[in-house]
Amino acid sequence: MHLPSGPLTSLRNRRVRRARVVIEDALRHLHAAEERGRQATVESLAGALGVSTRQATELARSLHERGLATSEEGLRLTPAGERWARSVVRAHRLWERYLADEVRKPAADLHRLADREEHRLRPDEVERIAARLGYPERDPHGDPIPTTAGELRVLAAVPLTMLPEGSWGEIVHLEDEPEVVYARLAELGLEPGQAVILRESSGKRFAFEADGLPCELPAVDAANVFVAPALGPPPPARPTLADLEVGETASIRALRVTGLGRRRLLDLGFTPGAVVACELASPFGEPNAYRIRGTLIALRPEEARRIEIERAGEEHP
Amino acid sequence: MSTQLPARLPASCTACRAHLEQLGIDLATADYVVALAGNPNTGKSTVFNALTGLKQHVGNWPGKTVARAEGGFELEGTRYKLVDLPGTYSLLSASTDEEIARNFVLFGRPDCVVVVVDATAVERNLNLILQILQVTDRVVVCLNLMDEAARKGIAVDHRRLARELGVPVVPTAARTGEGLAALAQAVAGVARGETRTRPRRLPASPPVDRALDALVPLLERAAPGLPSVRWVATRLLDGDARVEEALEGGELSGEGAMRPSPEVVEDLLAEADSQRRALGGRFRDEIVEALYAEAGGIASRTVRREGEVGRRDLDALVDRVVTSRVLGLAIMLLGLAAVFWITIVGANYPSQAIATALFWIEDAAASAFEAIGFPDWLTGFLWHGVWRGLAWVVSVMLPPMAIFFPLFTLLENLGYLPRVAFNMDWLFRRVGAHGKQALTMSMGFGCNAAGVVACRVIDSPRERLIAILTNNFVPCNGRFPTLIMLATVFVAAEFSAGYASLAAATAVMGAVLLGILVTVLVSWALSRTVLAGEASSFTLELPPYRRPNVRQILYMSLIDRTLFVLRRAMIMAAPAGGLIWILNNVEVGGQSLAQQIASALEPLGAALGMDGVILLAYIVAIPANEIVVPTMLMTYTGAGMLVEIDSLDQLHDLLVVDNGWTLLTGICVMVFCVLHNPCSTTIWTMWRETLSRKWTAVGALMPLAIGIAATFAIAQIARLAGA
């Protein structure tokens, strides 16, 4: 077999890249633990990276030698380690935002794709993406995106399972790992920004409403939904275009969509304040056709659900 | 602004001409270049056709003109080249169409941009006009569909509108030709620089204004002579990748200007980035909202509704009926069946007449060749091979297409087809595809190659690819004759005379439904595996019903679709005819090549419930599916040339008695007819549309694999059950 020229060089390069990936993954694990207020250990590191405890110990030592982490009372990031970790987190979350908004990848694939890309993006590329997206503050799962300087806002959030029955909060984060659980959350249509009212919790199953849509989740899944608890009576569900029956008219209040999808809706005339009427339903009940600025436009329900409306006579603060 | 632009850039401006040539516009024959822009469904293509005389295809559904069409007109000795841009709602580049239109207006710097506007929906259309006015001064607004507006009781004060916009506004009714002479005059005035325009500029909010003020001097340094500095600055502020690229590549620089130095561009982009950060995320929305607010204001001053007249109520009533649960679906299915029925019945007689005429020519020419003394093989190859193959394809294909395509175009022009997409979207959404796939699929019944081209109306790449790859599962006009013949010989024969034709029709319909079922299943499988992805945002405009122009429909569907497809098929069929003749007339070891290949294929054919001759026919018929049956018959009879059998009884005897066909053979051949590789024209078209060898290969081989699997399964199950 004929090897390409310089096989050793390319092998060495690959090893350097591999090493970088491992270190960055370790840093992200430590960062994630600190973000959630947990303590990272050699064991948790081994679990997160899928390596043996011995390898993880080796890795922890290597992080320590590089001045990226200290290992007194569990593993902790040093300031240098935190800077590096946040640059990786920034790349990861921005890339997820980009994939969701511009490439319209399915929500369940975002994390996996970004896991690969976070190690490849150069800092200037990360900055271009941020600029292109208009400096988003959160990733599609609701996590804050660190700034270039490495500043990160802390989320005041509790798992849905900790919310008292009958109280409400806003979804601020959907845990994207493990993927199967996240896929189930995405399937229900849960998204950051939705108002959640916990109706019933039996300890095993949690029944709640997300923006007026009744949902039910087992405790394992519900623990991956993080909400910022709110005081006072729960807000009335904000109606969307999907709630508009044939023959009804309303005005658009806000668009709950970002990126390409938002630009397209705006271009079609779905702007806040515009009057919209639901004129037709297809034989199978969806999509519906809406009269907007003199033209009849059909939208699928998942699109219509992202357009908040205000029926005539209703007043919202 | 520091630099005042010249009143008009001369058309000879070398830089602009270079841009235009880059954009694929041939300038050799024109003095001025005029672009035609507008929202979808404003009658833009009708205006184009009326001005140029060239009949370009018009469909009453959004996003028809994906590629650019060109034409020209002459006025007072000056030649104008007219470029039809894709219909877009905006220039903010949300889709490929918008990007094509935007790039042409911005980088091509045409001498005049005609914005075609639907007079019945001025407010919506103003959004695009206002955007174009920010890019170029040289604009003429064509206020089209005035006749329709009058019927709907909508009066537009076009003089007032012209004052508000600062550019000429010409009311027209392109369908009847009204106002087009005035439009041409207005275009000439603007293109030649005789009409001075003062396009309305948009006020920006103070923060955006300040950001733009910071960018403009840098931009003028990077691209001196740029006509629409503020607009380009807005795009940079928005982080528009294409505009950044154009800036770096020097496409935006004016005449004689050098490509800007990288440092200058870098400074500019860095400034844009920091300004954008300072503005925060809301400013994009504010720009669009400001556009609509402005549009709303202008519309309220220029448009008067004289009460709703009955017309829209009628539209609404028709819409409720054709999209209702029971009646709507029934109308759709009956409509499809009616189109088939008219096509099949109507094509019968002309097909025979054409065949008779063409075969008569063959006989006459062959005798003439013999009389002159040409060798037998030459006469045979040319006339009994190449010519006969051509004659067959023309006579089988032309009449059904000449009926099917006008009917399809009629439904398209009426505006019914978007309603079909609306009705079917639920199903296609379930399988991860786009509702418009219902339309490209229907188009495939006419010709799969045309169906593949039609997939352009689906603007999201993933769904479009699914539609392209699955188009071949619906049988085209070239395959219907085979289906009908087999249904008649095998299925109808099982029933008494009274029910025979009904049974045959049911069998053909069954084959069609099988094709649709497989389309849906394969779309589902593709979107779960290799083409996984979220359904892209689905928006479908349901245009108002329009009275179709019958003459134009006939002209368009015959020239645009029928002759186009026929020409391609003939190019493919002629060599196939020659090949068939060679296979059947070259003998090696006392057997013709065809028979030898057929016996080699026999075991495979048997496993699939067919035989070697049938497979050979399908291989030879890759260029044109029409010749499957004649090739089969030729090999069975050993006739040495394509054979037509006059009576069904004779055919029945040949297949069943002489060659051992059973009901299973008949069914397997019918299934294989629906599920097998596309013809070479369709394969070539797939490549043209995807520009990907990989996806073309998938599109060609996947249906074949499915066909083999299906017939194999049917044959094995039937034999097990029978044994």
Short description:
Chain A is α+β, with helices and mostly antiparallel strands and 317 residues long. Chain A is 38% helix and 21% strand. In chain B, 64% of the residues lie in helices and 7% in strands.
Main traits of this protein?
heterodimer, A: 317 residues, alpha+beta, 6-stranded antiparallel beta sheet, 5-stranded antiparallel beta sheet, 21% strand, globular, B: 723 residues, alpha/beta, 6-stranded mixed beta sheet, 7% strand, elongated, disordered N terminus
Question: Describe it for me?
Answer:
- The complex is a heterodimer of chains A (317) and B (723).
- Chain A has 317 residues and is α+β, with helices and mostly antiparallel strands.
- Chain A has helices spanning 7-35, 42-49, 53-65, 79-103, 110-117, 123-132, 179-187, 219-222, 259-267, 301-304; strands at 69-70, 76-77, 158-159, 168-174, 195-201, 205-210, 213-218, 225-230, 249-255, 275-281, 288-292, 295-299, 307-311.
- Chain A has ten helices and 13 strands.
- Chain A has a six-stranded antiparallel β-sheet with strand order 3-8-4-5-6-7. A five-stranded antiparallel β-sheet of chain A has the order 12-11-10-9-13.
- Chain B has 723 residues and is an alpha/beta fold.
- Chain B is built from 29 helices and eleven strands.
- Chain B has helices spanning 14-22, 44-52, 96-107, 122-135, 146-151, 158-165, 180-191, 206-222, 229-237, 241-248, 262-279, 283-302, 310-322, 325-372, 376-414, 416-430, 437-446, 448-454, 461-470, 480-491, 497-528, 550-585, 593-607, 612-620, 628-637, 648-658, 663-674, 680-690, 693-722, and strands spanning 32-38, 69-75, 78-84, 112-118, 139-144, 154-156, 169-171, 303-305, 539-542, 587-588, 591-592.
- In chain B, strand 4, helix 4 and strand 5 form a beta-alpha-beta unit.
- At the A-B interface, helix 6, helix 9, strand 10 and strand 12 of A face helix 4, helix 11, helix 12, helix 13 and helix 14 of B.
- Strand 12 of chain A pairs antiparallel with strand 9 of chain B, so a sheet runs across the interface.
